[in-house]
Amino acid sequence: MSTQPGEIIYLDNNATTQVDSRVLAEMMPWLTEQYGNPSSVYRLGRLALDAVERARAQVASLLKCQPEEIIFTSCGTESINSAILSACMADPDKRHIITSSVEHSATVKLCENLARRGMEITWLPVNNLGQIDLERLKETIRPDTAIVSLLWANNETGVLFPVQEIARICNEKNVLFHCDAVQAVGKLEVHPSNLGIHYLSLSGHKLHCPKGVGALYIGKRVRFKPLLCGSQESCRRAGTQNVASIVGLGKAAELAAQCLVEEGVRVRKLRDFFEQAVTQALSGVKVNGDQLQRLPNTSNICFPSIESETALLLLDNSGLCCSAGSACASGSIHPSHVLRAMGLSHERARSSLRFSFGRLNTETQIQRAIDIVVTTIRKLNQRSPQMGPVLTAA
Ligand code: PLP
């Protein structure tokens, strides 16, 4: 069996995922005949409220926590902002935040903004594997530290931080810990209450649910100051609930829980097969980041002396979607701050591509992806550097 001409091979599942048809089917009634407001007292409203509470239980079941520990938000970014700002508002005398140099822009931009407003931010560095130093974390925590906010899994490299140890240190030092688990939920077992994590963020669109819905775990005994004030979500996240999307997130969480282990194994096999084939076929190719402590679905590869932007366009012409660095609003690509923080040169960071696999990828697609990547990189390597890029962005 081969892939159909014109078929897209989507290896960018850390950017977003295709909506699962079962998730969409579950959402449809809540976009059509079931249009009640969950705060209304009549039947139409009560049905919507029941649906929201069912979804809360489904998300809680995936995270093995209590439903009351989950609030729904509009996205991962909102969950992250809510957690960090809650810690700042709950204890305004605490003016210090600890995070890392490889966080998602949701955390980076918020912390930069807070720094302009007088907060002091410690950006923990990472080593060449993309790992932080736990001793350094311990030494950095101060009596005025409001919160430690760190990734569970890096979106660009898939590198996993030692979340269990981080949570232990934060609890020993009596400081709040927010974990950005947007890339981990649905790919790994994520059980925040067992680990003593205080806040944990997740996002629907990384879980085969549509964009525009997320959730924040807030530990039972953790104080919370809302970002949006009003009455919904027990006054913790105001705004009439996005019922259809919340229902979708609940279904997506249920499906993720059902296939977490076996899909993890299958996707890891696909990723490892791809990585091995590409690194064997092309010389000088190197996988970026810690290969042991890594998500099963992510492969970040440096192809020396190619320009990732050009490679992306050529791969796209062959029907393969992957990514490089972080695309800014204008669509141009900056060398990844994550790879730069890991000590890669500007050139090597600009020569790196991220392939992220998902549960809808098939073995046939991966075989085809290997052919496309190897052919494209060989083509680029054959071009003399003086000739400039093969294609320029429109
Ligand atoms: N954190 C990480 C690690 C992510 O990968 C992303 C999205 O790419 C986010 C946060 C933001 O999530 P959302 O797109 O739902 O705002």
Question: Could you provide a short overview of the structure?
Answer:
The protein contains 13 helices and 14 strands.
Q: What does this 3D model show about the protein?
A:
The chain has 394 residues and is of the alpha/beta class. It has helices at residues 21-31, 43-63, 76-90, 105-116, 134-140, 163-172, 192-195, 232-235, 243-281, 308-317, 337-341, 346-350, 363-382, and strands at residues 9-10, 70-73, 96-100, 120-124, 145-151, 176-180, 199-203, 214-218, 286-287, 298-302, 320-321, 326-327, 333-334, 352-356. It has a 7-stranded mixed beta sheet, with helices on both faces. The chain has a 3-stranded antiparallel beta sheet with strand order 9-10-14. Strands 1-11 form a two-stranded parallel ribbon. Helix 1 (21-31) runs antiparallel to helix 9. It is globular, with a radius of gyration of 22 Å. Mean pLDDT is 94; it is low at 386-394. The structure holds pyridoxal-5'-phosphate. Pyridoxal-5'-phosphate binds at residues 75-77, 104, 106, 151, 155, 180, 182-183, 203, 205, 214.
The percent range for strand residues is 5-15%
Radius of gyration, whole Å: 22 Å
- Determine the N-to-C terminus distance: 34 Å
Sketch the major β-sheet.
7 strands, mixed
Mean pLDDT: 94
| Secondary-structure element pattern, one letter each | EHHEHEHEHEHEHEEHHEEHEEEHHEH
Biggest sheet: strand arrangement: 2-8-7-6-5-3-4
Helix share bin: 40-55%
Oligomer: single chain
Task: Give the low-confidence spans.
Answer: 386-394
Output the structural class: alpha/beta
Number of helices: 13
List the bound ligands: pyridoxal-5'-phosphate
Net shape:
globular
Number of E-type strands: 14
